[in-house]
Specification:
The structure holds two protein chains of two kinds.
Chain A: H1 16-20, E1 36-42, E2 48-54, H2 56-60, E3 64-69, E4 94-95, E5 101-107, H3 110-119, E6 121-126, H4 133-137, E7 151-152, E8 167-175, H5 178-184, E9 187-195, E10 207-212, E11 218-222, H6 227-238, E12 245-248, H7 265-275, E13 279-282, H8 285-291, E14 298-306, E15 312-324, H9 332-338, E16 347-356, H10 370-388, H11 392-399, H12 418-432, E17 440-449, E18 456-462, E19 468-472, H13 480-492, E20 499-503, H14 520-547, E21 554-557, E22 560-563, E23 566-572, H15 573-580, E24 590-595, E25 603-613, E26 620-630, H16 637-656, E27 662-663, E28 666-667, E29 686-691, H17 708-711, H18 713-725, H19 736-748
Parallel strand pairs in A: 1-13, 7-8, 11-12, 15-16, 19-20, 26-29
Antiparallel strand pairs in A: 1-5, 2-4, 2-6, 3-5, 8-16, 9-14, 10-11, 10-13, 14-15, 17-25, 18-19, 18-24, 21-22, 22-23, 25-26, 27-28
Helix pairs in contact in A: 6-7, 10-18, 11-12, 13-14, 16-18
Chain B: E1 2-5, E2 8-11, H1 20-27, E3 46-49, E4 52-55, E5 68-70, H2 83-90, H3 100-113, H4 119-125, H5 137-147
Parallel strand pairs in B: 1-5
Antiparallel strand pairs in B: 1-2, 3-4, 3-5
The chains are: A alpha+beta, B alpha+beta.
Amino acid sequence: MAKYSVVGKRIPRIDALSKVTGTAVYSGDITLPGMLHGKVHRSPHAHAIIRRLDVTKAQALEGVMAVITASDVPGYKIRSPLLLAEMPHLAQDKVVYAAQPVAVVAATSVEIAEKAVGLIEVEYEELPPVLDVLESMKPETPPIYPNLYTNFIARPPSDKDSKPSNIAYHISINRGDLEAGFREADLILENTFRTQTVHHGYLEPFAAVASVDIGGKVTIWTQSQGVFIARQMIAEFLGLLPNRVNLVPVEIGGAFGGKSYLPLAPLCALLAMKTGRPVRMEMSRDEVLRDGRPAPGSVTTIKMGVTKKGYITAASASFIYDAGAFPEMSHTMFVRGNTFSQYKIPNIKIEAFDVLTNTVPVTFYRAPSTPQSHFAIESQMDLVSRALGMDPLQLRIQNTTAEGDITPSGEILPRVGFKETLERMAEYLKQKGSLQGKNRGRGVASGFWHGAAGSWGAYVQVNTDGSVTLVIGVTDVSGSRTSIAQIVAEEFGIPMEAVSLVVGDTDTAPWASPSVGSQTIYSLSHAVYRACQDAKDQLRHMAALRLGVEASEIEFAKGLATVKGDTEKSVSLGSLARYSVSFRGPGPIVGRGSIGGLPPAPSVAVHAVDVEVDKETGKVKVLSYAVAQDVGLAINPLSIEGQIQGAVTQGIGWALMEGYQFDRGKVQNTTLLDYRMPTATDVPMIDTLLVEVGSSTGIYGLRHVGEPPMVATLAAIANAIHSATGVRLKTLPMTPEAILKSIKKQGKS
Amino acid sequence: MKVKINGKEHEIVSGPGTTLVDVLRYELRLTGTKEGCGTGSCGSCTVLVDGRAVNSCLVIVGEVEGKEITTIEGLSRQGTLHPLQQAFISQGAVQCGFCTPGVILTAKAFLDSNPHPTESQIRQAIAGNLCRCTGYDKIVRAIMSVANS
């Protein structure tokens, strides 16, 4: 990367100093004078009608300042209008999952608030809960919502079924001639794969602090992946205009998609409005696991036909996601763009469903829907390679799509380094040599992520000391502040230390879409780049006048505006900025940039994992792990490696140990001892092979980075376990117990 | 009740049954200590008590009367970062930062008693500290780099 001086460098995070010294401020760290404490009363039942709700005893408790139920909500009684459907923050007549919020209390201490929560009286009439997706889909199953009809995504709304249904969303894709495709096949395999409900496992529980000023303006400090959308949602909930609500950025202690939703902030703000005092609310870990929107479990059936030579002729698949009790987040909409996009399949049929059950509603988790779908697809590809006796990477290289190919959703693929990334992994494994040892096995899998873009703004100002201030509204969940500051340094030819990056609140910063879909650095960089060019044009004109040359002859390096080819002729940025604000100057040098409507730059990540399985206990040891990923251009390899290593570790947890345990819809494992996530002893060092096939749409060729490395993990590990033991696990998690059972079953057959 | 925290004597007004993490965070406003689970399963609230790493959510303040507590705020001296803090920054071992104070303090207590550990000993030592962002790779490397220097 000799082309750039700051971009492409392993630069430590600019927020790291505050984090290693404990001075970084997270939502729950904020205390305001006279602050009250809020707590939530939750439903004990998975499905019940509320017959009576009485808060008088709670209200009468000394120290209780407010109790709020659904009827007290001034504005929307529903959640975000930006979601696909709108569900209540507080249950009104009916509860549809265990732990659903019913009422909320503000009191002078946490202890009093908790006591008051216990004094709220609710009489429920229990209803039979719907707990299984396959059962829930059946037409004879009573619908959880009597007025909910299936939404057919990408089809006209008039297509709604005539009958209410627990299928919230449905997509259907047909391309080519499926039956003809299967007739051409020499081998047809059909399998069903199941994944469990899992949690993002961010370490920071939800928290919010809200206060209201004398003029009625509401200020909120809370961890949110998108403060502008959060502001809009909270304002509507409170019955206020968005400009009467200000969200202040705070550090976010892990998110992974799970902090796009706001369980506390609207309620906290309403309590502050009702009491006229600041209020803090914090969730316990138990509440996070019971009501913290996990990722959906899934049931996927795939039928695939291939020729003897290993060319895919046809595939059909049904993807069913357990949406939980709210039809607000669709996972099937991501099935469209992400499944089977990396393979040439001439004849294809896809059906996908989001199905309601009386369990905790789900939300998006790092490449939503896609680790689940790829667990099925990439396990199936592995079974095909075994049946044909083909090298699994070769099978994938041979079927891989290329630029210009059309995906199942009808999109024309831009350039993606599918082949380069698969070949890079093949080369790496060749160098590494084959795996030796008893009960050991290697698995490979490939994962595709389409990505998202969004709308973003940026302001820059060149300061009188030659430094540059950037103002953005981004939530940093991936090191985005550091990478974005690198772009500013690169563009102005100044060192990192001369960039001041300010994340403003929603009153001062330009709009930022939520930090989701691996879109942040990819899209925001466009707005920042444009803001830099705007300011640089102004600098160029001033420098050209000063140096007596054309503006087009000016370039920027080492804090100077220099005449191209004549380093003797230069003027410092500080000098130009000082002149700009002087008596005769043209006014401050302020640059502005915006971006919207950017097409995504899809990415691929190929995984290889070596495992050893203890045949006595069924325990899997991950011996080594490597990921080759097309990152477009590695803007900060240190940061990208960390993203890949973190994603893989989350995937290892998902594959081997994590999972919600429900009893009649109620989550049973609500501590981090019972919901076990990988520790440092469960994972090896994770090798990262950064492939740089520049995208045509990203600044410097950037692509999406954070989510792609999660996608293939589940299948890669299942494939490695198959290599080690000869047994195929089609259900997650692959716990020692499950593996042992499969090994014993195989021994008998 | 008196407790010495980061070298300074503090008179504690919370009751002796209050958890140490609550005293640190809410009475003394030392919010660098984080609470991730409240059941001693995640290690985010780790502090040093007489040099040993403990989960401050599992300790009541009455138990540490007269003892010496070090929190993340007390690790750097006169503006100079502890080598672990420096290594966590330069090796990219910090992402969201919520687990970071606890991991650094666990690592400090461990290296103080075992200055030249193997990779596997380091992994064992920090197994009580969950990190969901980094996959531990760069954390382990940061601790190794301090041990080797």
